[in-house]
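G., before I forget:
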Amino acid sequence: MQEVMKKALELLQNGTVSRILGWKTGDFFYDLTPAVFESAEEVEKDFVFSPFCGANLSKYLIKESRKEGKIAVFLKPCDSYSFVQLLKEHRIIRDNVYVVGVACDGMCDIEKMKELGVKGVTAVREDGENLVCETLYGEKTVARKDALLERCVSCKSKKVVMFDEMLGENGEENPESHRFDKVAELEAMTPDERFAFWQNELSRCIRCNACRNVCPACSCEKCVFDNANSGIANKAAVTSFEEQNFHIIRAFHVASRCTDCGECSRVCPQHIPLHLLNRKFIKDINELYGEYQAGADMDTKPPLMNFTKDDCEPSIVHERGGDK
Amino acid sequence: MTMRRDPLIPVVAVVTDIRRDTPDVKTFRVVGLDGKKPFTTIPGQCAFLSMPGIGEALFSVTSSPTQEDYLEFSIKKCGCVTSWLHAIEVGQQITVRGPYGNGFPVDTDFVGKDLLFVAGGIGLAPLRSVINYVRHYRDRYGKVDIVYGARTKDDLVDYEEIKNEWCKEDGINVHLTIDIQQEGWDGNVGFVPNYVKELGFDTNKTVVMCGPPIMIKFTLAGLEELGFKRDQVYTTFELKMKCALGKCGRCNIGDKYVCKDGPVFRLDQMAQLPDEY
Amino acid sequence: MKKLSLSKLNELFSALSQKGELYIPADEKNGQAKFTLWQEGLSMTENLNTVRSAKDLFFPQVEQMVDFKVSGKEIEIVENRHTAEDFIIFGVRACDAKSFEILDRVFLSEPVDTFYKERRDHATVVTLACDKPEETCFCTAFGIDASNPAGDVSAWKVGEELYLRANTEKGEKLLSSLNLEDADESAVEETKAEIKKTLEKLPFGKLNLNGFDGEHLMEKFNRPEWAELSEACLGCGTCTFVCPTCQCYDVKDFDTGSGVQRYRCWDSCMYSDFTMMAHGTNRPTQKERFRQRFMHKLVYFPSNNDGIYGCVGCGRCLQKCPIHMNIVKVAKTLGEGEK
């Protein structure tokens, strides 16, 4: 962990970059904020890399890479997929970014820890495989594996797919992630059960737009939902149908570009498992067009943006049966 | 218990006359379904017009309160609601609610003063109600000067009234200007702020100004050069509003709500507020 | 003061629900709490607070205002507003109870918002003392006592008992209509003292807000730190929508095909279209929008409301902001207290 901060200092001091995009310390150890550091003093004071660095920094580069000077960014494996995908979409100016890959064994989620009954957490420290929490009600220990973000529980890859420099040893893709298990479970439901599942989940949506605003695949200059002339720019639902539309339209729009970084579910204040919608698309794409991982490389074309003669026919929906 | 009608609920009114003033400005005459003026106003106040399904938008009332039969709104086509309005015909019903805002101090601070009106483009709309009010009660006020500019002659809102009425009235000096020389124009050519400086007014006047922010900024600088103080200058602001009741939060600037604390402000009061208008 | 065995809570809810709709904080399927219409079988959450605040019950996220029928050039206004009937909210925390006072200052000031007023008039609020505050709580900074919450009725859980005290006429009426045992006020003293001890330990409980007032309006507005504070802001509406005191709204029309529904819905000053007009916006970047939200709560609102802040320290934004930026960090950065 210290290594990451040392690297940040080094890159600033040796002039490789003029700014660092990283995570800034909070009040309770778990409450980090993405931040740009412009001096060694700032880094020494506030820079932090900890098990609570869940926030994916790649989307900030859309703006930051357009500013003057070079910026260094620390990317975890899953963040690096978003980075590559954004590069493919010409949203980031690569020359202005120095990428430091950081190995990751999963990031933690304070909300999950609270669900485990750890309340009033005023400080956290790492102790081997455990997180030791100081709370208003005494010290509590949580196994790190129980505190992992949902997306880290089913981590698809520990490989940083693009970097200028790698800190620590780069990992491998994980074919045994079981990330589609829940999707398969939903597919096995009857349409009515599935509808009930999603209705229950999506009915909690408060249209805060956190999922959209955090999503690296949602980088439109102007979102259709903010466009008064689009006819679907309503901020809140007159009927719950509109809420459901929002998430489904969004899932369609990011389909084959979504890298499954899981930020949508991490930021949802209502804990809606939005990543499942995206994973359904990914699973379908894998099954219909062959295995495809968005953001894995610079060369392959997203299946939904690439025509080949072998593409499945629209009738596939009918052939598979409406219940799939 | 029956609740009284919520102030957010409008009433239905009908558009009885539509006048094209410029290529992108039309003036709409609005009366209630009972044939009467929907409500009385103070010059500078605003009202919401709406077409259900299109939306509701706030406009300053262009007609003077002394006009007892109807309200008039001079509206530039630039957004959803205004585009719809520009496409309607006489007889169309719309909804209206108001009046909102403080209006200009026509019966207090302005009384007995020489008045200098400075307007640019559609900025004349809110000032027209003041000017016509002042004309109606002519003896309550001193000399009146009007400096009005637009991009072209065709963009001067309701040029006919200006030419045939204002220009011909004793004690009113109208100074028109357009941005670029144009055939058939023998008036001044140049931007409003420069023209104001060239005309060089006495500093005993009270200034009433409305126009694009850039015009206000430079005119103010020019007036200050001439020796005017900010507390002699009044202007009216336009910000996004949804309720005009001081609740929806949009027009909040500093600790003021433009909808109820404004839209008319004296410029020395604005100095105490963040520059977010 | 009255008391009831906690084992009979369900019976109390049943009795209360006879008097009107009863809302209690209950867990949803995902384990987070929400004020939910009580029906047989619904039990109260163990969570400290709901994700969405109790303001929903007075100022719902979406509210139907009026309908229009349009035919040809004609418009007909159809007033078919929902009329509120008496209802009870049980288990409101001290912070949310205080937020109603703040909302009242907005919606009940002239011209009165009749939609809000109607709901307020018909509601009886039963508050519940906080037995286990979170580290994100800082109600004490605003003079709120979570050991002795306001409301029409205040309640305390003490061991296996629930104690209830009426604070208002409405509260008296409610309690006297229930079959409850009499109890002595002293029964809750120990619990209150216990809660107070925890409140003393709240990390932000003594947040220093000196200098956040109308007099320092321009000074606070012009502080250069706004750029850094707002740097990572996503521009989402999470803080706004979970906030018990945020009350900005939008008015929109929805064409049903057979008429137009005009409704209002929550809006957020954090959104890029909040002040967008046909010719542009006066808050073009996230910095200005972010600043507006915090300036409103910490400076503009108190300037207009006898020094009362537009925040109750419920801590929801601290818990829910996707980037962990919040009013405490803003106040510490721009304030006179310890950084």
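Chain C has a mean pLDDT of 95. Chain C touches chain B through 56 residues (CB under 8 Å).

More on Monday.
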